[in-house]
Amino acid sequence: MFLLRDQICLWWGVRFPPDHLEALVAVVDEGTFAAAATALGITQSAVSQRIKALESRAGQVLLVRSAPAQPTRAGAELVRIGRQLLLLDEEAAAAVTGAASAAVLTVEVNADSLATWFADVLAAVAAWRGPTLRLEVADQATSADMLRAGSVMAAVTADPVAVQGCSVTPLGTMRYVPVATPDLLADHRAGRSARWSQMPVLRFDDVDDLQAQVLRAHGVPGHHAVPTHHVPSSEAFAHAVRAGLGWGVLPEAQLGTALDDGSLVRLPGAGPVDVSLFWQRWRIRSTPLDRLTDLVTDAARVLRRPR
C-alpha cells in the first residue's frame, strides 16, 4: 500500500488499519494464512495477528478457518471495503508518482461469456500498461453472490437488481440453441419429437439449469430423470456435443457453421433459451474500473439487444 498505509478505515464507528484489511483480503484470495503471508511478504504469524486484531475490533469472527478460508457475512463486508481501499490506494500512488497503476481488478464472468464475446475484453486489456485482471468463473445465475461476498469488484451476471453499493448496466442477451448430432437424434427419435427421458444430455455443473429448462418443457422433471454427463468446461462442453456424447444448449457463437453443414441439428420442438446478461460493478470512481466497464459494454455489442 502507498498513500493509505498509515490511515484508518472507519466501519460502523470502528477503526480498522488498512494493512489489517489488506491481510484479510489476501487470506480470502489465497485461501490460507500461509499463502497470504507469502503474497504479502510477511510472516504467517503477522497475518494471523492482523486477522485477530481485526476480529477483536469488530467484536466477531470474520473468517471461517476452513480450506480454503471463507469470510463470514461481516467479513465479506470488510473484504469489499479492503478491496476498495487497495484499488484507490494503487490509483493514488499512480497519480502521485506518474507510474502505471498496479491495480488488480477482480471480475466474475460466466464460462460461456469467457469462451465467446468476453475474449475481446481480454485482447483489449492486453494493451494496458499496469492494471491486471483476476478472473473468477461462476454461473451467471449466482455471480451476484460473489459481489455481495466482496470476492469481486465487478461481474457479468443474470441478476438485473443491483447489489448494494453497485451499479448495473444491461449488456444484452445470450441465445442458446438446443442441438445434437444427427446420429444421436436419430437414435432417440419418437415420430416428430424425441425421447427426451432417454436421450443422454450434458450439464456444465450442478448450477447449470439451461438443459433442465428444455427438459421440463417436454414433461421431464430434470437431469435426475435422464442419463446426464457433466462437462465443466465451455469449450469441452461444445466438443462433447459435437462428439455425440449427449445433447446440450450451445451459445450461438459456438455453433459456427455446424447447423449449416449438418454436423449438428436443432432438437425438434425445442426453442432457443435466452439469457439476459448485466454488468454490475462497484459504484466508486476508479479509472481502471471505468476503462474495464467501457471495454465490457463495447464487447457485449455482439449480443442480442435487451428487449
UniProtKB/TrEMBL annotation:
The entry's keywords: Activator, DNA-binding, Transcription, Transcription regulation
One annotated GO molecular function: DNA-binding transcription factor activity
Pfam families, sorted: HTH_1 (PF00126), LysR_substrate (PF03466)
Coiled-coil intervals, chain numbering: none
Repeat in keyword set: no
Top-level lineage group: Bacteria
Domain HTH lysR-type: 16-72
Family membership: Belongs to the LysR transcriptional regulatory family.
Entry-linked PANTHER family: HTH-TYPE TRANSCRIPTIONAL REGULATOR ARGP (PTHR30579:SF2), TRANSCRIPTIONAL REGULATOR (PTHR30579)
Protein name as annotated: LysR family transcriptional regulator (Chromosome initiation inhibitor)
Organism of this sequence: Barrientosiimonas humi
